[in-house]
Amino acid sequence: MIIAIDGPAAAGKGTLARRLADHFGFAYLDTGSLYRAVGLAVLRAGKKPDDPNAAQYASLNLDRGLLRDPDLREERTGIAASKVAAMPEVRANLLEFQRNFASQPPGGKPGAVLDGRDVGTVVCPQANLKLFITASPEVRAKRRCLEIQARGHTAEFEEILADVRARDDRDMNRADAPMKPAEDALLLDTSELDIDAVFLRAAALVTERLKPQ
Ligand code: DC
Asked: What's the gap in Å between 196 CA and the centre of ligand 1?
């Protein structure tokens, strides 16, 4: 069982994916963390995230240690991730790891939940269930501000909203694997729904797919 959850930044897909994985005993992969690790490696090397050589090197030599680095969740890492993610070579270098994770979930788990931008369209077009989670840019910027403040930092709403919009624009309009719902994806708008309601809806869909045909 492969569950693909795509959507823009801060729409709630990570929280939903983690909860579904916990509930059904599936493995969970946050594919954005791979792009973030590449972006962070480039920044730490003192290079610009839109430097193709630096991004390609970092994606070929993915430093798994960075996946647990506290700076991975920083706003500037997300912006860098979105820039390296526009490069086809970087995407190609990260594809096999994601596909292997989905087809052979670690720990022998009976399924995998992957979240990102192109899981339903490119990484796992054969997924058993595809969800596309959205929310308005304002709602997402508000959530991101609260997250940043919860980590003890200050966050300026207008600045975060501009980052959210710029990231959407880059992620939707790149030539390779742009963020878009797969044709067979179910769309869920979380602007007005809390996480429990979203989880209940999604869990019911997974239960339905798990029933023998
Ligand atoms: O979900 P996130 O904010 O952690 O993702 C960071 C960036 O990585 C996002 O702006 C675009 C890129 N990304 C991608 O291009 N494809 C994915 N499957 C996941 C993330």
From this structure: 24
Instruction: Classify 167 as helix, strand or coil.
Output: helix
Neighbouring residues of 185: CB distance < 8 A, sequence distance ≥ 6: 4, 6, 120, 130, 131, 132
What does DSSP say about strands 186-189 and 129-134: parallel, antiparallel, or unpaired? Answer: parallel
Residue 157: CB atoms within 10 A of its CB come to 12
**Burial letters for 176-200: b for 16+ Cβ neighbours within 10 Å, e otherwise?**
ebebebbeebeebebeebeeeebbe
CA distance 172 to 160: 18
pTM assigned to the model? 0.95
Residue of minimum CA distance from atom 13 in ligand 1? 32
**pLDDT tens profile 120-156:** 999 999 999 999 999 999 999 999 999 889 989 899 9
| Tokens coding 212 | 């023998």
Q: Which pair of structure tokens corresponds to residue 38?
A: 């590449």
Report how far apart the first and last C-alpha atoms of the chain are (Å, whole number): 14
Q: Tell me if 12 CB under 6 Å of ligand 1.
A: no
- Judging by beta carbons within 10 Å of its beta carbon (0-12, 13-18, 19+), is residue 109 exposed, middle or buried? middle
